[in-house]
Amino acid sequence: MKRTSKMMIPIMGVILFALITSVLYFRSDTFYRLFGYGQPVQKSSVHTLTSGERTSPGQSINLYYVSTNDLLGREVADNTQKAMDYAKIHYKVIKLEAIGSIKADPYNGIILSGENQALFPRTALENFVKGGGRLIAANRFYVTKDWFSLFGMTAVNGFTDVTGFHFNKTLFPGYPNIPASSRLFNHSSLAVKLNPDTTEPLVTAENLPVLWTNRFGRGKVLFWNTSALNDKTSRGLFDQALGKVFPAFVSGQLGAQTMYIDDFPAPAPDTTTDKITGYPITVRNFYQNVWWPAMKKIAADNHIKFTTVAIGIYQKIMGPPFPDLSNSDRNFYIYFGWENLSMGGELGIHGFNHQPLLLAGDPTDKTLGYSSWHNESDMVQSLVQLQKLVHQYFPENQINVYVPPSDMLNATGLDAISKAAPTVKTVASSYLGSTSEGSYVTEFGYDRQHPNIFLYPRVTSGYSLSVDDWFSLADAVANFGVVSHFVHPDDVLDPQRSGNQKWSQLSREYDGIITKVRTSYPQITSVTQSEATRMMKDYFKGDIITTYENHAIHIAFKGIPAQSSVIVHVEEGKKLDVGRFSFGRVIKLGSQLYDVELSKPQATLPIREG
């Protein structure tokens, strides 16, 4: 018996050694490199719908844009025309003298921008609207008494400055009322009184009407009593307000939601804190055992795909030799990368050392404490080293996305990306904000200097959103169906970014953001950044052809992504049938407001009474 026991000791030792070795191996970077953490989920394909060349009955909406050559007129024209371009709303820029030749018709509209009202042909505009045309004043301008009847005014007492935004009527789901304490909108407006018999106030600021419609003869006027339509956060409002003056109105929706996690995967400290959870825990353990399980559950519950962008190190190594990190045992790093890839997510890059690609002398936010690069060559070498690290651990993942640290970038940095990372197809920075401190604020579309790079900026950020943030999010959706949002894992560690809230509260608020987007905007689908870029390229290249009859709307997609849709407004007393049909699906979003998703390239929507 003793002999048997003695024999069991080495056997048990061998078994224990094998078990420990297996556990260590399965947790090692070698195992993940060879086998991965499950198989990455196949990304959904992006395909387009293209109708034939047959002519649909009815007539198109014809919008004519005319602007006076003053600063506000040019700014408002540039901004609102970009809004219509994004939404596939067709328009034609004309000269002032052409106004008199436009036929008065319910499907013809004239858009005015500029402050020099003396240049606008009042009589021609009155005749146009009186005969049934639609007139849109895209900014306030000084109005004399002879204009009062056309615009629905009874008195004007000069100009006044007001703030805030209060909706008397819903223009589009999700817009919050903006308090006067907010500086999101500063309106220079006419101190005006309206004719209650002909006007319908849609939006006010400090009880002053800033948007209304006015019935005049057989036509209708939409008047923006503000100077704020030169701001990006008004684009969706402008598009959707057009639906308030025409018998019916259609605009495009890309239908893409991108949800980013920046600085992820990245090195995580072993420091202990109790500020995150209320009890002591290392940051590393918090990420792995608390934060990431919660993020995964939120993603699974809401069908979210994360696009993450990796960091190599957080040390300020600004020149060669850059350390080779690919031989390190980075279990923590690759665990998160493989987990996200296995959920159908995407992995891009954020920077070797989280230092923006800026040179000395470039504008920068000095409070962030970043260092400058010496030259483009050093930038290139750092990006090459980061890609080597990512490819070592994730050999099947192609790097298609770059996000600038703190959304800061310059032309030299973009050159470096193009040279060092030729597979990068998308650069995602900021959509809103100022460029004065190095922020790379862009539109959506191809970069002019690097046509291989598509710019797809992010709109909002954080685990919780302020009222102003919610407005910006809603406006990007109202403009053309885009949600682009990002967070950082360490936002929860920063008192300012977290609002001094614990993770339990932040996770609920983050889940609330995603849930509200899903319920308010059923036309929006969560996709990776590469999928969103492919969708937007096709969307920009394609077209939406719409014709209108008294009792029907005819829609044709020309190379538009199948995931995209259209927003349809109908006038008071009218409605669309909702549900699933042979052409696709119609969803009611609000009063006289619908989203139409097509499964076939063409659709006819009957307009019903009611």
Outline of the structure:
The chain is α/β, with parallel strands linked by helices. The chain is 29% helix and 26% strand. The longest helix has 25 residues, at 2-26.
Topology:
Layout: H1 2-26, H2 29-35, E1 48-50, E2 62-67, H3 71-86, E3 92-93, E4 108-113, H4 122-130, E5 134-137, H5 148-151, E6 153-163, E7 166-167, E8 186-194, E9 199-205, E10 208-216, E11 219-224, H6 235-241, E12 248-253, E13 256-261, E14 272-273, E15 281-282, H7 283-302, E16 306-311, H8 331-342, E17 346-351, H9 376-393, E18 401-402, H10 411-420, E19 426-427, E20 445-446, E21 454-455, E22 460-461, H11 467-480, E23 482-487, H12 495-498, H13 503-520, E24 525-526, H14 529-541, E25 543-549, E26 552-561, E27 565-570, E28 574-576, E29 579-581, E30 584-590, E31 593-598, E32 602-609
Parallel strand pairs: 2-3, 2-4, 4-5, 5-11, 13-16, 13-23, 13-24, 16-17, 18-19, 19-21, 22-23
Antiparallel strand pairs: 1-26, 6-8, 7-9, 9-10, 10-11, 12-27, 14-15, 20-21, 25-26, 26-32, 27-31, 28-32, 29-30, 30-31
For the record, the count of structural domains works out to 3
Write out the CATH superfamily name of the largest domain: Glycoside hydrolase/deacetylase
Alpha-carbon Rg, integer: 28 Å
Largest sheet: 8 strands, mixed
